[in-house]
C-alpha cells in the first residue's frame, strides 16, 4: 500500500511558479481563501470609511463623489470578491475530499476560474488609478449607470463583472460535473454531505442566473460605448428591463452567498452536538427548494417600480413561500442540537451565532414581502439592516465558522480557542451594535446611499452607535488575524481528525496529500466515516470501535485501483495565461480609442492559452 | 448493507478514457443549459422591443426567403456534423475530415449570409443606434453569429488536427463535444429565426 503513495510523481512543489501552474484543488482552494480574505480586509476598510463619514451629522470625512465610489466598491467587493470566492474556496478544497475523489472534474478549468477571478478583481480595483472607481452602486441601475458617461468608471464595473461571471460559470460547470461523475464508489446522491448538496445547488443557481446579468452587462456596455439604445428612454426603451435582468440574477445570487454557509453550519452542528443531522433529507431538499423558488422571487426588489398589482401580489406570495424551506432548515438545526452533548468550541459558537442572526435577518426579510410595508422600507436603512443580518450575521459568520472548523485540515495546526472566543464575542457585539440600530434608522426614514444627513432628524445617536459597532467588528478581526498568524508556529498539532468528524475529509491526513486518498474509499452509508469509528450499543448510544485508523479505506476497498500508480494532472500555465489574455482584452474594450491593440493582444493571448490548454495532455507522459 | 447493493449504486469510475469522455459530455450539457439562459435573455429583450422602432425601419426590412435559405444551410450543417461524428466513430478519419470541413464550410456560408444581411440593413438605415429594435436585433443575431464563428474555428482546428492523427477522445477538443455545441447553436437559430423573422411577418 505504501508503494501507491510513493509512485505519485513528486515534482518540486514550492515556489511561486508552482502556485501559478498548480491544478491541485486544495492549493486553488487556499489561493481563493487568501485572495478573498485580502479583498475582505479592503472592503472592511471601505466600510469603516463609510461609517466614519456617517458617524455624526454633516460628516466631512468623504466627499459625495468618494462616498459613491466607496459604497459601490464595498458592495461589489463583498458580494463578488469576498463571499463568492470564499464559498468557492471551501467548495474547491472540500468537494473532492467529501466525495472521496482525487480532484475536481476539470483541474485546469478550476485554475482558470481562480486566475480570472483574481485578475478581474485587480482590474476592477485598478480603476482607482484610472480616474475613479465605479460609483453607480453594485446593482448598476440603468439608465443611471448608462448616463454616467463622462468617465470609464461604470465600464470597469461592467467588464469586470462580466469576467467574474465567466469565471463563476466555469466553476459551476466544473463543480456540477464533479458531483455527477466523480463520487467515490457507493457515494450515492443521498449519502453526500449537506455541504456538497448546497455546493451543487449554488452551482446550478449561478449557471442559470449569471447569463441573465451577463446579457444586461453586454447591453449596458454596448449602450455606453457603441451607441446602442437598450436603456435610452428617449428612444422608447423600457427602464425596467435592466432591473428585471439584474434581479433575475441578483436574487438567486443572495442564495448563492448564503447556501454554502448553511452547508457549513449543517456540517458543524452534528459534529459538535455528537448527533447526526436532524432530518438530513429535509435539509437537502429544502436547500434544493430554495434553489428552485429562488428563481421566482426576483421582482420583490422592484415593488416600488410600478409593475402593477398582479405582479406585486404574485411576487409577494412567492417571497413568503421561500421563507418556508428556510424555516425548515432552521428547525432542523435546532433539532440537531436538541439533546446533543454540545461542545462549545469556536466553530460551534459561530454556527449558533449564524442561526440566531440569520433568523433575525430572515424575519425582517419576510416583512419586505408585504407590498405596502415594502413601500415604506424601500431604499431605507431598514433594507441595509436586513441584508447585513443575512449576509454578515448569516453568511460571514458561517464562513468564519468554517475557517475555524477546517483550518486544522488545511494546515495541520489548530487555531487558538481563547482567541477564537474573543473574536466571536467581539464580532457578535460589534455586528449587532452596527446593524440592529439600522432597523430603527430605516423605519425613521433614513434613506440609504446618501453621503450625509442634517442635524435634528433624530439620526445622530443610532448612527454613532453603528459606527462604534463597525470598529468593534474591525477589532474582532484583529484577533482573528493574530490567531491565524500565531497558529502557523504555535498552533497545536491537529492530527487527522481533531473534531471527531463525520465526513470523509477527516479520513485523510492534515493537510491531505496531493492525491487525497491512497485508496479510493468505499462508502456504505451517510456519515460513513463516523460509522467506521462508532457502533451503537443496545440502548442506541455511540460506542467507539477499537482500531479505527484508516478504517474507511480498509480491505473492502475496490481492488482494481490498488496497485496502479496514481496519475495526478500535471501543472499547467495555460489557464493563467488564458485568463490574463481575457483581462487584457477587457482593458482594451474599456479604452477603445487606443485600446484596439490591447483587444488584439488580449484575444491572441487568450486563444493561445485556450488552444495550448486543449491540446496539451492532462498528465505528462499520458499522450496516448 | 451488502456489498452487492453497494456495487449497484456505483457511479462510473473515472480514469478510463471513456469515463473522461462521460465527464466532459456532462460538463458540455451543463454549459449548454447555461447558454439557454444567455440566449433566452436576449430573445426576451428582442420580444420586448420588437415594435419599438422609433423613426427607424422595422421588420419590413427582413427578406424572409433569403434568410430561409441561409437557415437551411445552417441546418444542413447539423446533418454533416452527424456524418462527421459517425465517420470518426467508425475510425474513418479521412471521411470524418471531409464532413468536418463541410460543416465548417456550411457554417461559414451562413456567416457570409449574415454579414451580407447586416450590410443591407445598415444601408437601409437600421443600425445598432437607430432604435431599441435595432439594438436588440443586432445583439441577438450578432451573438448567435459569434457562436457560429467560434464553432467554425473549432471545426477547422479539428479538421487540421485530424491530419496529423492528434484528434482523439482524451483531448479537450473532440468531435462529439463540438458536435453537441454545434447542434445547440443550430437549434437556437431555429428559435431566433421564428421569433425574429417569422413572427414579424
Could you give me the name of the CATH homologous superfamily of the largest domain in chain A? Answer: Cytochrome c oxidase-like, subunit I domain
Write down the overall mean pLDDT of chain B: 86
Major protein interface = A-B, 60 and 52 residues
CATH class of the largest domain in chain A: Mainly Alpha
Sheet having the most strands of chain A: 2 strands, antiparallel
Any idea of the CATH topology of the largest domain in chain A? Answer: Cytochrome C Oxidase, Chain A
**Beta-strand content estimate of chain B:** under 5%
Q: For the largest sheet of chain A, list the strands in their spatial order.
A: 1-2
CATH architecture of the largest domain in chain A: Up-down Bundle
Please count the helical segments of chain B: 6
Report the radius of gyration of chain A as a whole number of Å: 25 Å
Looking at the chains present, what oligomeric state does this protein adopt?
Answer: heterodimer
CATH architecture of chain B: Up-down Bundle
- Give the overall silhouette of chain A: globular
**Rg over C-alpha atoms of chain B, rounded to the nearest angstrom:** 21 Å
Descriptive report:
- The complex is a heterodimer of chains A (624) and B (201).
- By secondary structure, chain A is mainly α.
- Chain A folds into two domains: 27-544, Cytochrome c oxidase-like, subunit I domain (Cytochrome C Oxidase, Chain A, Up-down Bundle), CATH 1.20.210; 576-624.
- Chain A contains 19 helices and two strands.
- Chain A has helices spanning 2-7, 16-20, 25-54, 64-99, 107-126, 144-147, 153-181, 194-226, 240-273, 280-293, 309-337, 346-369, 371-377, 381-411, 417-443, 460-490, 528-533, 574-590, 592-615; strands at 534-536, 542-544.
- In chain A, strands 1-2 form a two-stranded antiparallel ribbon.
- In chain A, a hairpin with a 5-residue loop joins strand 1 and strand 2 (542-544).
- In chain A, helix 10 runs antiparallel to helix 11.
- Chain A is globular.
- Chain A starts with a helix and ends in a 9-residue tail after the last helix.
- Helix content of chain B is 76%, strand content 0%.
- Chain B has one domain: Cytochrome c oxidase, subunit III, four-helix bundle (Four Helix Bundle (Hemerythrin (Met), subunit A), Up-down Bundle).
- The model of chain B is unreliable at 1-18 (pLDDT under 50).
- In chain B, helix 2 (17-49) runs antiparallel to helix 5 (132-163) and helix 3 runs antiparallel to helix 6.
- Chain B has 201 residues and is mostly helical.
- Chain B has six helices and no strands.
- Chains A and B meet through helix 7, helix 8, helix 9 and helix 19 of A and helix 1, helix 2 and helix 5 of B.
Amino acid at each position: 500500500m505504501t508503494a501507491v503513495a510513493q509512485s505519485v510523481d513528486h515534482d518540486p512543489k514550492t515556489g511561486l511558479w508552482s502556485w501559478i501552474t498548480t491544478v491541485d484543488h486544495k492549493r486553488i482552494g487556499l489561493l481563493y481563501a487568501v485572495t478573498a480574505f485580502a479583498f475582505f480586509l479592503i472592503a472592511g476598510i471601505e466600510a469603516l470609511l463609510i461609517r466614519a463619514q456617517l458617524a455624526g451629522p454633516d460628516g466631512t470625512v468623504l466627499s459625495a463623489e468618494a462616498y459613491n465610489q466607496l459604497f459601490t466598491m464595498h458592495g461589489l467587493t463583498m458580494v463578488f470578491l469576498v463571499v463568492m470566492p470564499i464559498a468557492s474556496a471551501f467548495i474547491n478544497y472540500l468537494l473532492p475530499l467529501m466525495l472521496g475523489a482525487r480532484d475536481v472534474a476539470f483541474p485546469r478549468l478550476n485554475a482558470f476560474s481562480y486566475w480570472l477571478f483574481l485578475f478581474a478583481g485587480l482590474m476592477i480595483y485598478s480603476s482607482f488609478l484610472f480616474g475613479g472607481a465605479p460609483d453607480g452602486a453594485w446593482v448598476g441601475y440603468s439608465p443611471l449607470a448608462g448616463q454616467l458617461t463622462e468617465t470609464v468608471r461604470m465600464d470597469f464595473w461592467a467588464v469586470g463583472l462580466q469576467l467574474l461571471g465567466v469565471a463563476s460559470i466555469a466553476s459551476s460547470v466544473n463543480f456540477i460535473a464533479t458531483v455527477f461523475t466523480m463520487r467515490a464508489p457507493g457515494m450515492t446522491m443521498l449519502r453526500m454531505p449537506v455541504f456538497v448538496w448546497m455546493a451543487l445547488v449554488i452551482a446550478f443557481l449561478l449557471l442559470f442566473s449569471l447569463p441573465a446579468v451577463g446579457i444586461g452587462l453586454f447591453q449596458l456596455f454596448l449602450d455606453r460605448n457603441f451607441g446602442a439604445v437598450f436603456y435610452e428612454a428617449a428612444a422608447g426603451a423600457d427602464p425596467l428591463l435592466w432591473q428585471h435582468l439584474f434581479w433575475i440574477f441578483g436574487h438567486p445570487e443572495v442564495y448563492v452567498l448564503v447556501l454554502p454557509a448553511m452547508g457549513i453550519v449543517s456540517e458543524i452542528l452534528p459534529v459538535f452536538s455528537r448527533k447526526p443531522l436532524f432530518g438530513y433529507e429535509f435539509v437537502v431538499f429544502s436547500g434544493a427548494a430554495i434553489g428552485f423558488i429562488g428563481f421566482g422571487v426576483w421582482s420583490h426588489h422592484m415593488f416600488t417600480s410600478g409593475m402593477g398589482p398582479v405582479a406585486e401580489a404574485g411576487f409577494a406570495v412567492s417571497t413568503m413561500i421561500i421563507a418556508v424551506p428556510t424555516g425548515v432548515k432552521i428547525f432542523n438545526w435546532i433539532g440537531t442540537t436538541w439533546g446533543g452533548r454540545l461542545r462549545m468550541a469556536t466553530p460551534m459558537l459561530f454556527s449558533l451565532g449564524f442561526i440566531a442572526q440569520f433568523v433575525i435577518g430572515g424575519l425582517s426579510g419576510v416583512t419586505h414581502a408585504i407590498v405596502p410595508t415594502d413601500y415604506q422600507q424601500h431604499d431605507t436603512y431598514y433594507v441595509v439592516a436586513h441584508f447585513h443580518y443575512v449576509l454578515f450575521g448569516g453568511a460571514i459568520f458561517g464562513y468564519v465558522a468554517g475557517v475555524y472548523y477546517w483550518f486544522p485540515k488545511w494546515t495541520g495546526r489548530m487555531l487558538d480557542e481563547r482567541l477564537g472566543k474573543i473574536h466571536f464575542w467581539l464580532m457578535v457585539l460589534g455586528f449587532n451594535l452596527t446593524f440592529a440600530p439600522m432597523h430603527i434608522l430605516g423605519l425613521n426614514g433614513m434613506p440609504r446611499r446618501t453621503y450625509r444627513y442634517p442635524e435634528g432628524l433624530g439620526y445622530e445617536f443610532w448612527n454613532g452607535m453603528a459606527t462604534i459597532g463597525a470598529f468593534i467588528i474591525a477589532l474582532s478581526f484583529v484577533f482573528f488575524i493574530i490567531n491565524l498568524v500565531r497558529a502557523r508556529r504555535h498552533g497545536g498539532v491537529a492530527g487527522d481528525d481533531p473534531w471527531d468528524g463525520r465526513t470523509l475529509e477527516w479520513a485523510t491526513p492534515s493537510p491531505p496529500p496531493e492525491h487525497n486518498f491512497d485508496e479510493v474509499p468505499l462508502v456504505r452509508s451517510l456519515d460513513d466515516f463516523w460509522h467506521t469509528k462508532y457502533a451503537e450499543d443496545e440502548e442506541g448510544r455511540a460506542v467507539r470501535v477499537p482500531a479505527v485508523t484508516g478504517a474507511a479505506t480498509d480491505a473492502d476497498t475496490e481492488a482494481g485501483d490498488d496497485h496502479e500508480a496514481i496519475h495526478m494532472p500535471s501543472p499547467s500555465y495555460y489557464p493563467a495565461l488564458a485568463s490574463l489574455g481575457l483581462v487584457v482584452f477587457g482593458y482594451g474594450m474599456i479604452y477603445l480609442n487606443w485600446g484596439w491593440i490591447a483587444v488584439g493582444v488580449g484575444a491572441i493571448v487568450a486563444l493561445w492559452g485556450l488552444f495550448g490548454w486543449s491540446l496539451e495532455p492532462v498528465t505528462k507522459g499520458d499522450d496516448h | 448493507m451488502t456489498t452487492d447493493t453497494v456495487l449497484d449504486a456505483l457511479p462510473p469510475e473515472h480514469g478510463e478514457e471513456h469515463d473522461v469522455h462521460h465527464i466532459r459530455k456532462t460538463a458540455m450539457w451543463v454549459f449548454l443549459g447555461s447558454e439557454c439562459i444567455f440566449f433566452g435573455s436576449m430573445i426576451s429583450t428582442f420580444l420586448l422591443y420588437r415594435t419599438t422602432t422609433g423613426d427607424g425601419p422595422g421588420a419590413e426590412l427582413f427578406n424572409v426567403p433569403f434568410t430561409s435559405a441561409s437557415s437551411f444551410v445552417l441546418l444542413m450543417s447539423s446533418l454533416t456534423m452527424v456524418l462527421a461524428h459517425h465517420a470518426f466513430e467508425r475510425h474513418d478519419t479521412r471521411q470524418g475530415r471531409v464532413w468536418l470541413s463541410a460543416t465548417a464550410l456550411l457554417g461559414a456560408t451562413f456567416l457570409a449570409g449574415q454579414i451580407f444581411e447586416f450590410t443591407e440593413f445598415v444601408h437601409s438605415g437600421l443600425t445598432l443606434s437607430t432604435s431599441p429594435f435595432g439594438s436588440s436585433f443586432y445583439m441577438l443575431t450578432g451573438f448567435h453569429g459569434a457562436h457560429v464563428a467560434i464553432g467554425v474555428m473549432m471545426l477547422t482546428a479539428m479538421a487540421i488536427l485530424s491530419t496529423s492523427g492528434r484528434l482523439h477522445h482524451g483531448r479537450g477538443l473532440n468531435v462529439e463535444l463540438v458536435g453537441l455545441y454545434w447542434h445547440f447553436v443550430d437549434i437556437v437559430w431555429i428559435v431566433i429565426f421564428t421569433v425574429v423573422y417569422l413572427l414579424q411577418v
